[in-house]
Write a structure and sequence with these properties.
The chain is α/β, with parallel strands linked by helices. The chain has a single domain, classed as P-loop containing nucleotide triphosphate hydrolases (Rossmann fold), CATH 3.40.50.300. Helices cover 31% and strands 24% of the residues. The chain is built from eleven helices and twelve strands. An eight-stranded mixed β-sheet has the order 6-7-8-3-9-10-12-11, with helices on both faces. Strands 2-1-4-5 form a four-stranded antiparallel β-sheet. Strand 9 and strand 10 form a beta hairpin. The chain starts with a strand and ends in a 7-residue tail after the last strand.
């Protein structure tokens, strides 16, 4: 039996209107579809990797899910319950209850921490806001969280600038874990770290998932990290999901031309092995002037006339792979 879905995203949209100032008033001249009808799900205890080029809408999708920016449309359900409604509503108690279930780990571990607060103050803030423990128990909980992410008790009284990048990211993870969430959205959590520290953080995330039964939405440009941590992978291009598949199936045999081009860019540590890089045609289109029909047809070597007139529908294969392409690869 497969695990039930914890996170369900359906038809998510985030639109940014473009306006120009006229003589008397501003008028809208267009719209940027940063996230356009994005749908996916993440099974409980599993990891969905979200990949794509810079500017494709990965972080906007993640922030819209937790209402860090307001979504323009669509539904997000967590454990079968509406997530966007409570997060954007006036019921503070309901909002806090949902935020305890889903937390965010930011890309830059330095900018996401208050430089004037000690680590103890940073980790006790969620305990205070959510009123999870009486104040005398806060210190013990801080020590417990530090131990959970591989830090020492004496680190509690230090400031963020006294830590390395990897240690700061451990603090960011500990802060997210303070409220015992079910879902962590990891927005490029290792992109600012060097290779050796990156491996340590990835191993920590895998260990925490195994011990605590966490569910991850993992956003990264590092496809090797995505393959290590993810159960399934969703490929995004210009605000749309073009392919979703099990991680091994996608990396071994991508069926969307964009997925194949993206994976071919992974560097191979063998100087004698010939490069298999699939160079795409042209440049990424402007988000203000999206191509009609299939958004990838302007760069796709498989494109035909139908790609320019009809947008491909997302279909599901018997193996569970989701694909939106008129000419899928064999």
């Amino acid at each position: 039996m497969t695990a039930p879905d914890l996170l369900e995203v359906s038809g998510l949209q985030k639109l940014y209107p473009i306006s120009r100032r006229g003589l008397f008033r501003r008028r809208q001249i267009g719209v940027i579809r940063a996230v356009d009808d994005v749908s996916f799900s993440v099974a409980r205890g599993q990891t969905l990797g979200l990949v794509g080029e810079s500017g494709c809408g990965k972080s906007t999708t993640a922030r819209s899910i937790l209402a860090l920016i307001s979504a323009s449309g669509g539904q997000v359900r967590l454990g079968g319950k509406d997530l966007l409604g409570p997060l954007g509503g006036a019921d503070r108690k309901a909002e806090l209850a949902m935020r305890r279930r889903a937390q965010y780990v930011f890309q830059d571990p330095y900018l996401s921490l208050n430089p004037r607060w000690t680590i103890a103050q940073t980790l006790t803030e969620p305990l205070r806001v959510h009123q999870l423990l009486p104040q005398p128990a806060w210190r013990a909980r801080v020590i417990e969280l530090l131990d959970l992410v591989g830090l020492e008790p004496h680190h509690a009284d230090r400031y963020p600038h006294e830590f390395s990048g990897g240690q700061r990211q451990r603090v960011g993870i500990a802060r997210a874990l303070a409220v015992d969430p079910e879902l962590l959205i990891l927005d490029e959590p290792v992109s600012s770290l060097d290779v050796s520290v990156r491996a340590q953080i990835l191993n920590l995330l895998a260990q925490l998932q195994a011990e605590l039964g966490l569910t991850y939405l993992f956003i990264s440009h590092d496809l090797s990290s995505v393959r290590f941590l993810s159960s399934r992978v969703a490929v995004m291009y210009l605000g749309k999901i073009v392919e979703i598949a099990d991680v091994d199936a996608l990396f071994d045999a991508p069926r969307h031309p964009y997925s194949r081009a993206l994976l071919s860019a992974i560097p191979v540590p063998d100087p004698d092995r010939p490069s298999a890089r699939n160079t795409l045609l042209g440049e990424i289109p402007s988000a203000m002037t999206m191509p009609a029909a299939c958004r990838f047809h302007t760069r796709c070597p498989q494109a035909s006339a139908i790609c320019k007139t009809h947008e491909p529908e997302m279909t599901t294969t018997p193996a569970g792979r989701k694909l939106a392409c008129h000419h899928p690869l064999g």
